[in-house]
Amino acid sequence: MKRSLTRALRRTGVLGGLAAVAAAGMLAATAPDARAHDAELEVGLLLPFTGQYAWVGSNVQPVAQMVADEVNQAGGIAGHEIAFVQGDTEGVVDAGTTAAQKLVNVNNVLAIVGPTSLSFSGARQVILQNDVPMVSPTAGTTALDRACRDVCFRTVPSDSLGGRAIARAATDPQYLAGDQATRKPVLMVGNAPAMVSFKQPIARAFDTYGAPVAETITYTPGKPSYRSEVRGALANDPDSIVLVGTPEDTARIMTNAFQAGYQGRWFVTQDQTNSDFIELAGARLVEGIYGLEEVSSDASAERNRAFEQRFRDYAGADPQIFATNTFDAMNVVALAMLRAHLRDGEVTRANLAANIERIANPGAGKITVHDYTAGAKVLRDGGEVNYDGLVGPTDFDAWGNITAPFGIRQVQNGRWTTVSTIAADALN
Amino acid sequence: MDLNAFLQTLVYGLALGGTIAVSAVGLTLSYGVTRFINFAYGEFLTLGAYATLALAGAGLALPLAGAVSVVAVGLAGVAIARLAFDPLMHRGLLPLLVTSVGLAFVLHNMVRMVAGANPLRFPLPLMRPWEVAGVFVPREQVATIAVALVAMALVHLLLSRSLLGKSMRAVADDAALARSAGVAAPRVLAATWFLSAAIGALGGILLAVTQVTLDPAMGWRFLLVVFAAVLLGGIGSPYGAMLGGLIVGLGVELGATYVSADYAYAFAFVLLILVLLARPRGLMGGRT
């Protein structure tokens, strides 16, 4: 392509060359499915690679690459390798819109892995208008609960479920480590899309479980201190504070509450339920707090351990948050590509979306598989597969949502320890 | 109105205001002499906080680490100004402004490259507050207010009693006249850069004490609040910056308590707009 473009410029001069470029651009814009016949099948990684949330991109990319390498080393999809194009959302809405437009309209990707909750609202229209299948391994936002049929999928449970899990655990002693049930909670939520998404589900669930939230405080993220906000929360004399925020703000709010004499319980969300947060906030401050995490089902626990070892061998580092979700997202995309090629003879945006449901959801005669290699063998032999992932069954509802169990963890002796598991059906 | 809650909010507001005031003084000092707003100023705050963290990690006591960092960042400020700003001093405001924005990004990313993008904890021990007549007074906030008061008193003495301070005020008032009166403008400029960066570093350390965690964007983020304080007090006026800082700090905390935690900053900026409508040159009538 590059060589022929250079020749065209030489022969026809600059104007002719520009016309050729424009024509090529128009062709690309009007024929997105032609990508399937090029050397590579391009998948967009629509994630923050710079900025405050750059760690999300850093966590996701190596896992996605590991699965792509598995596909490519097995001959790719009909000889075409899977390649990634980065779309850096910077963890903000406007950059997310720009990055999505570039991936969809310029790079002409077949599918998108991403975005995060932080930039979903900006990318949503671009994805919907162009019917680009997206599989997000990170976006728990409730904005995705009923956002789009057929093209939006995610391999991470909705914050609606996460919110219910926190309230269920806080109000039911069977999920706590010897503590009494919460009767008077206060909810503190950062005013950013990824956090506000938890607000209604948590408040509604506490109502349902008979312990209405005494006060909900929505605070400005990134403030140097939250002493006045904490004073407002403590004025309710709560027995628990449920805190949804970034790790930095959470550490600040907990420190400010400690300095204001608070000795009650804390419940935090997935972003804090890791060893980095203990280091950031200080072990003494966070001893005894409860956290939420997505856990594997009993059936997939062994596969999770095998995945962790495989990733360590591949990347030389431990898998981080969203690693298992990314593994499932990329396997779903790769198996759907292969099925689209084998059954439809081509891989297009339209048939890729339809094939995602066909390879992920259960059905009569389907063989359950847990990775690309096993699934590819079944598909090539003429069978049908039901992909069952590391995070759970990976069965999508009509809106592309999955359900998964949650683990309740507590910091004990400076380490996160799982104290109970809430099954997915306990949250219905 | 609950008097205890009000007094509690005042204590919190004074501590935050002290941090903003110290930071604002450094910015307004450099503006007074150079006549341009240094957008890289926020990075001096970041450098001060990270240098203190690094030195404390190397085994220095926290106050000593802070003092060494303030001097080191002051010297770095002089070097940076020599390289980036001094050659452009006679080419108008725009090149200086653009350079300062670019410099902010360079310094920001240098910190990120060396220290990483993840937030870090400032090594301050966890302490329960003093309780005075039902009002919680966090110990580190008392230290913050004390350091801020001492810093502002020292700036006042420097400007009003020392030859350097008088020279700085003379150059700020009329650089050409000061030169003709024998004031060595380059020396005054170098001293101004040193003071501005050093005070910025001190502001960064106080900010780190206040917000517990550090990240490479902390200074850049805080710059907006510092600008508000500088404008409120009257740009170019150190005393105005002190007053502006205290008002903005109190405004943010009172706003969070009595208006909405969600609009805490908005309340402070409404105050700024109201003051500027009544006094376009700010409270202390600084240069516009």
TrEMBL record, chain A:
Keywords in alphabetical order: Amino-acid transport, Signal, Transport
Looking up SUPFAM superfamilies in the UniProt record yields:
Periplasmic binding protein-like I
- What range does the record give for the signal peptide? 1-36
Q: Where is the Leucine-binding protein domain?
A: 41-412
Pfam families hit by this protein: Peripla_BP_6 (PF13458)
InterPro entries per UniProt: BCAA_transport, Leu-bd, Peripla_BP_I, TAT_signal
Tell me which family the UniProt entry assigns to this protein.
Belongs to the leucine-binding protein family.
Q: What is this protein called?
A: Leucine-binding protein domain-containing protein
Automatic annotation (TrEMBL), chain B:
Bilayer topology annotation: Multi-pass membrane protein
Q: Name one Pfam family in it.
A: BPD_transp_2
Transmembrane residue ranges: 6-29, 36-58, 64-85, 92-111, 142-159, 188-210, 222-251, 263-280
Q: Which UniProt keywords apply?
A: Amino-acid transport, Cell inner membrane, Cell membrane, Membrane, Transmembrane, Transmembrane helix, Transport
Q: Supply the InterPro entries for this chain.
A: ABC_transp_permease, BCAA_transport_permease
* Cellular localisation: Cell membrane
The family line of this record is: Belongs to the binding-protein-dependent transport system permease family. LivHM subfamily.
The entry's protein name is Branched-chain amino acid ABC transporter permease
